[in-house]
Amino acid sequence: MSKTAIIGSGFIGRAWAITFARAGHDVALWDNDSQAPRRAIDFIAGVLPDLKANDLLMGREPDDVLASIRVEDDLEAALAGVSHVQENTPETVAMKKEIFPRLDAAAPADASIASSSSAILPSHFTEELEGRARCLVVHPINPPYLIPAAEVVPAPWTAPEVVERVRDFLVSCGQAPIVMKRELDGFIMNRMQGALLEEAFRLVADGYATIEDVDIGIRDGLALRWSFMGPFETIDLNAPGGIRDYAIRYQGIYENLFPQMQRRVDWAGPVMDVIERDRRAKLPEKDLVRHQAWRDRRLMALAAHKRRAAKDISE
Ligand SMILES: NC(=O)c1ccc[n+]([C@@H]2O[C@H](COP(=O)([O-])OP(=O)(O)OC[C@H]3O[C@@H](n4cnc5c(N)ncnc54)[C@H](O)[C@@H]3O)[C@@H](O)[C@H]2O)c1
Asked: Which ligand 1 atom lies nearest to the CA of residue 119?
């Protein structure tokens, strides 16, 4: 068990708090809005029973998990004695540049300091820090207590042993870390998601598909396999001779497509009028928050199913 600090207690901070605490770590929540950690605690208290019902608390009780999360009004107190700091303040370089020197100054010398940044490279806000060797990005998918993959992104000066320690820490929390060898715009997952979204927007903008068609193609098509195996494992099983056979047989189909897939589509341009009209007809704006809770319940059911299936259906 180790002590951790969550800096910035909004959407992602509160979700990391659950992830760390259910694995038995102590969590201190801090935010410059003193009410934010208290709102986070209320949210967490509401979610824990659902997680318990889906056996997603690593065998612990909601009350125990909640008891290991505390609010600190003072940054120094939150950082005292911690071995890992997870920063979750708003996504601007200016914000990260303001908070990281404070974390580097106050966290114990051997603590790792990770930012949850979605897209800012760690070299863009850690270069000047005395303790830059212990700083890196750990980018989760929201919410990390239901989606295990997290990208571990070192700056050029991040110490390899820090990367290794953070990787081990994430594994201890039940996460599935993707350790990047060096930083890259978009990391790994947003590059893949971006390629898919760009094609989805283009298909709708060019009038080949409705947004429901695109959603069916993923939800009732490709994602069924992708929910338990990746694209490489998928194609390895889709040609009699395995992955090389797949490449030889099918590369030609895709090669033909790539030149057609180069033209950019403005996501917020005229196509958005069509997309937004269709989405709002399906889900009125006032129901967005309720539907986020629905998505999380579906994710819980999926996580519980995946764990059961991994046990029941051997390799
Ligand atoms: N929301 C997502 O889906 C998602 C996914 C992955 C990563 N992230 C990343 O996580 C980080 C946080 O995003 P979020 O969605 O939780 O945002 P959020 O707006 O929900 O939370 C941000 C929190 O930071 C606090 N804050 C603002 N200024 C601060 C300061 N000076 N010091 C301390 N706290 C301060 C706010 O009060 C708020 O509680 C961002 O870097 C974002 O890119 C978000």
From this structure: 43
